[in-house]
Write a structure and sequence with these properties.
Structural class: alpha+beta
Protein name: Reductase
Distance between the termini: 23 Å
Organism: Pediococcus claussenii (strain ATCC BAA-344 / DSM 14800 / JCM 18046 / KCTC 3811 / LMG 21948 / P06)
CATH topology: Aminopeptidase
Radius of gyration: 14 Å
Helix content: 40-55%
Length: about 120
């Protein structure tokens, strides 16, 4: 289940983002959270599973699409299933927008779309 970021979840979000490649220090993590929480078109979603936060998705909302900028998970939860769960949740939240990936998430989106095509 995806939950939209709120300031009360900042420490959890910081902890999960610390597992993301390229976000190696707290200053950069805080800056990323500020950028995504203070802009109307940039959002943070937390993935919750069995009452535990296991992942974070950073998304950019455009007129016609939702861009998955980056994802991070706690150790042992960075699985294809959990990645696809975030993508399915984003599709249900934004049913009239196309789901796209950034350079960092394009391969995840491609794999997801291929699995969706096989299910149809």
């Amino acid at each position: 289940m995806l939950i939209r970021y709120s300031e009360s979840n900042r420490k959890v979000t910081m902890g999960i983002l610390s597992f993301m490649d390229g976000l190696s220090n707290m200053e950069l993590i805080n800056k990323t959270i500020d950028i995504f929480s203070e802009n109307d078109n940039k959002l943070i979603y937390l993935q919750k599973n069995n009452d535990q936060f296991i992942g974070v998705a950073l998304v950019i909302i455009d007129n016609n699409c939702v861009i998955l900028d980056r994802m991070a998970f706690i150790p042992n939860e960075n699985t294809v299933y959990n990645q696809n769960d975030i993508l399915r949740s984003l599709q249900s939240i934004y049913p009239h927008k196309r789901l796209m990936g950034s350079l960092k998430t394009a391969s995840v989106l491609e794999r997801f779309e291929m699995s969706q095509n096989h299910e149809e």
